[in-house]
Structures are given as structure tokens and as C-alpha cells.
Amino acid sequence: MPKPLLIQKKTGLYVRFLVPTDLRGRLGRRFIVRSLQGTRPDQARLIAASLECALCDVFDHLRLESDLDARCLVNDTIRKARCGRRQAVHVPHSRNPLDLTPAIEDRLVQAVIDVLTKVGVIPSPSSRIPAAPRVGMLSERIKAFLFQMKIQGRGEINYLDTSFTLRLFLGLVGDKDLSEISPTDLDTFLEALGRWPAHASKKPAYRGLSPRDVLKVAKRRHDKGLAPRTKEKRLDHLRVFFNNCMQRRLLTYNPCAGLHITNKEQDDQETRLPFSERDLRLIFDSQRFNHTRPYKYWGPILALYLGMRLNEIGQLRTDDLEQIDDIWGLHVRHQVKNRSSRRFIPLHPSLLPLGFVEYVQEVQAHSFDLLFPSLPWSLHRPGDGIGDWFNRTYLRKACKITDPAKTFHSFRHTFASLAERSGLSDHRIARLTGHSIGASILRRHYIQPATLQERAEDIAKIRFPALEIPVPPKGCFEHYFKRVKILESRKQRSKRKIKDEQR
Fold it and tell me: How many domains are contained in the chain?
């Protein structure tokens, strides 16, 4: 019996059989070699054992048959082999001086096919599953899906996060037909999420790199990875994309079905905690809370007394402040998170003695459009300049509040917690914070939204701790505004100079 020998080469895995000495003249070789590339080790051992049994039968027949009988049998087996998977078990030809060798090898191949089909290694022609029809390249479907999101008016942040996730998936698995997406591709994506560095887009080391290169650099740098909830959100974006493909009958199943990174306990767990009264006194202590940059002063105050999101504060404009029916308030209407986020928030009474209205008027007098001019922010993350400074520098180093569950977003939790303790119902709080309150039949048709006067009364009911927040002196930001104008003037001159040089 020819014993199989598995050989690992640079080009892949092979199995080699020693031809019996009495048949080497008829076959014209000492060895029969079969490529096993693309198979796992356990599959390779099974195929090698099946080939061993098939070769034993073939060698026994060759010993009994004459050359003429072999030719007749070969013609029949070649005809039958045309409907089999010949390429799957191809035995390479060698330099053979005998004329009969190619025909004998054809017979040998067919005998091996028959044995492998019988043991189930190769499916029979009648049981083979037809290839799935091609439905379009992954890159094309991603482009169409993102275009649909634009038409549907999805939130800008949601659109950008989804776009990043889908392009990350495309960069990792490569562009292929949508029908060819396999569980292995999802394994690759999940493995990448496990090694993807947090805030990679903000770090110069990863700027301009492909997804695979980012992972290589992250492995060398040992940067902190993504939080479990962030990984789950990335997977959610991919799940929504594949659900859309199913609805359009491009796929019969969702490749993300059954995949989760966090469990229910982790999902229900609070990732952010509200500030305690002691925390608020540390943050707004008059000895340290005396900033000359307006976004460092007004950012935390607006987050506490209005419950606004970080990015909502960062993109405020001077015309967002408006007085309606003698009620001062702020419009949240630019790059909103979702439809519920678009709202008008009446100012809490505590903001008026601090001079917020006067500050906005001062900004308008300097002809600035943004409420916080020269705030370092990106186009899609306008609150990063405030959040990075507050979380990394002010909160941790100046205030010594090191609990990782307490960040700038904790102001929003504090607002909601104090509103609930002040007697406001959940749906009234949601109207102020811009959370979705559901879409039940009762709420859509019978419960009318709170009027402006009611919202002003609601926000005035919220009882905040007594804080001694220092009132900014009149004109204290004047130097900052002048500095901003000088910097903007320099940028304009630099742009004009570049244009002149290009001409």
C-alpha cells in the first residue's frame, strides 16, 4: 500500500505517494504528487487517506490488465471524467517515455475522483450547489447605501460613523461581489475591531494609512483599543447595511446575524455617571474656573444648565440665540444627531445673571458668525476642542476627578438626573435634552408637544446645587477676540500668497 507523505512547501501543502517498483515502468515515474493547497490540515489528512485507498485499487487493476485492456477502459473513464471535478484532483504529468502513460494517468485520476466522491470529500455532480448569482460589488453597494442615507436625511454624525465603518470593512476584506461575503470576512472585521486603536483619526501616527497599515502600526505602538460599546456600534452599522441588502433582495441572510460583542448586562450598564455636588463645586471653583477663552468658560456651563451635547455646543452660532415671546433660548439645528435633537431650549434662569446674552451680543459686535470663534474643531466633530481640553487637562489634572465614567458628557447625565429629581416626567425631560420619546399611536396623535412656555417652566423647575460660578468681567474676552482676528488675517494673507504663486 502506497503510504502518503505530506510535504509543506513555500507554494503550499502537497501529498506524495511512492509508486511500486513493478509499476514504475508503466507509469514512468517513482512518485505521484498531489497539490492540497487551500485545505486545512485535518482535511489534508482525510484527502491523503482517500487517495491512498484509491491508488491501491488502481495499482491492483494495472497489475492484472494488459495494455490493450487498459486503453479500452481508459477511453470509457475519460468520457465519464468530463462531468467530474477533474481539476480538483489533478495529478501533474511528468516526463514519460511511454505512450500509454497519459491515458493511464487519466484513468488514475478518474478512479481517485470516484473514491473521493464516494467518501464525501468531493460532492457528486447531482448534489453540487449552484454558484450564487452575482449581485454587485461591495464597493458599489456601500456607495448606494450611503447615498440613500443622504436622501433620507440621516443625522450627519450617524452618516459619518456608518461611512467610516463600511469603508473600514471594505478596506479589510477587499472589494468583492456581495454574494461572496463569508463568515471569514466577519471574523476578519471583528479581529480588526479588537486591535483598532481608540481615536485613531486624531493621532498623527495613523494619518493617511490604510486599515491594514493602521493595524500594523497599532501593534507596534500598543495604543489603547476601542471600548466594547464602541465595537458593538461598529458592528451595528454593518448589521444595518446588510439588513438593507436583504430588504432589496440582494442577500438571503445577514452575515452579522448572531454576532455580538457586548452582552445585555454590559448594554444596560451606565457608561457615564453624573457629577456629584462635590464634583460640581470642584469644577466651578472660582480659583480655577477663570478662563480667558470663551469656549472653556461657557462650554461646561451650557452643558450643565441646558443638558446640551458636546457637538451641539461646539457648533453654536450667534444667530442661534433668539428671544421668542420674551423667552430667551438657543436653537439646536445644525449637525444634529437625529430628528429629535433639533429643538429650541429656553435658557435656564441661572445663565442670565452670568451674562450669557451679553456675551453673544459682544461676539456679534465683532462680526463673528460662530459663538466660539477660533475653537479648534474639525468639520464633523465641532466639540472636540472643548472635550479634549476638559477631559484630559481640566477634569483630570486641575480638578483631580479621575473616575473614567465621569467626562464632559456627565454634565448631560447630571442635567437629566436633577430634572427627574425635580419632578419632570421622562417625556418632558426628553423634549429638553433632544432624546427620542418613542412613536406610539397615543403619543403621535393625542399627546401634543410641550409648548414653549411649558418648556421654559420645566427648565426653571430644575434645582441645581448652589454654585459660586465667577461672573466674567465685562470685556474680559476682548483680548481673545483681537487675537482671533489677527490669526484670521494671517490665514487670509497666506491663502492669497499661495494663489498668487500658483498663477
Answer: 3
Last residue in a domain, options 268, 290, 325: 268
Where is the domain boundary, 211, 243, 268? 268
Distance CA 4, CA 474 (A): 91
More confident residue, 255 or 133: 255
**Model pLDDT, residue 65:** 56
C-alpha span between 43 and 34 (Å, rounded): 14
Residue 409, number of CB atoms within 10 A of its CB: 18
The verdict on 190 and 224 lying in the same domain is yes
Domain carrying residue 263? 138-268
- Does one domain contain both 115 and 18? yes
- Each residue's pLDDT tens digit, 180-211: 898 889 999 999 999 999 888 878 888 888 99
Average of per-residue pLDDT across 289-299: 89
Phi/psi at 460 (nearest 5 deg)? -75, -20
Q: What pLDDT, on a 0 to 100 scale, did the predictor assign at position 447?
A: 44
Residue 363 lies inside a defined structural domain of this protein? yes
pLDDT over 80 (residue 298): yes
Measure the CA–CA gap between 157 and 144, rounded to whole angstroms: 18
Q: In what order do the strands lie in the sheet with 327-332?
A: 321-324, 327-332, 343-346
pTM: 0.59
Cα distances from 71 to residues 67, 91, 491, in angstroms, run 6, 19, 87
> Same domain, yes or no, for 263 and 305?
no
Give the CA count within 13 Å in the CB-facing half-sphere of 198: 9
